[in-house]
Amino acid sequence: MQSQDKYSIYKRICVNNPTKRLKLKGEVMSSVGLVLQGGGMRGIYTSGVLDFFMEKDLYFPYIIGVSAGACNGCAYVSKQIGFAKKMYLDYIYDPRYINYKNVFKGKSVLGMDFIFDEIPNSVNPFDFESFKSSNHRFIVTTTDYTTGEPVYFDKDECDDIFMAIRASSSIPFITPPVNFSGMQLIDGGVSDPIPIKKSLQDGNESNVVVLTDGNYMNKPRNIKRLAYKMYPKDTKLIDWVFDMHRINNDALDYINSLECENKAIVISPSKHIKMGIVDKNRSKLEELYNLGYQDAKSKYEDIKRLYN
Description:
- Residues 34-200 form the PNPLA domain.
- Pfam families: DUF6363 (PF19890), Patatin (PF01734).
- This is NTE family protein RssA.
- One of its GO terms (molecular function) is hydrolase activity.
- Keywords: Hydrolase, Lipid degradation, Lipid metabolism.
- The protein is of the alpha/beta class.
- The chain has one domain: 3-Layer(aba) Sandwich (Cytosolic phospholipase A2 catalytic domain), CATH 3.40.1090.
- Helix content is 41%, strand content 13%.
- The chain is built from twelve helices and eight strands.
- Strands 1, 2, 3, 4, 5, 6, 7 and 8 form an eight-stranded mixed β-sheet that branches.
- Helix 2 (44-55) packs parallel to helix 3 and helix 2 packs across helix 12 (282-304).
- It is globular.
């Protein structure tokens, strides 16, 4: 069975069948979580979703994000409409932001200092005070480069949550690991790409899950031997990356089961827009942002019922 077909079956059974729709009106939820998947430049879809939420003054008490999801989440916590969109669109042709030539120089394709230091501190100022004073619980998901296990950082308990966000965004083989909190950390998507179980463990009975790509991942083609030759010192990381499809698909299975049980609302692209993790196609990025905005709008009434 193809991955897209499996996902379509779930959606047909759990969403398009009127008897299986979310029936949330009148239910009392102790807490509602917002779970944000990563996805590199596909994260602009989440920017559209969250900008719609902010325009409607819809804020969740708990937010957990991975990689691009964590980047979007911090702008949501600081209540800066349009901030994340600008981060994706305004600098894509600046070589300090994305530079493919760095691959041949053994350097990071993404300009992490430019993205996580120069832009938010001077070029496109981030509202650090609003972020720090927010009463929202904000969790960032990273991966321990030594063990391959997920490591979570809470905004209110972490010495430097923005360094944790940088670590969560350190895509394997594209950007280097980040030394933080006594660990080497990499992209949270390696170990926990959609941290729905963490949200449930933290007490959220219901969740709104934003996926940048709701399709199931195919098993990587048989190029592991080539990867070992290219990155002989990173064999354990290669093994983890080649196992990401299983972890991702298990998470999607679990989220779909929660959706069937009326414990989750899933927002994912209603239209397929092909895009790479590091993509500089501005028209596609704008299209994906607008799609996120419209998809959030279509789920707005369902989400409001969570609070009724």
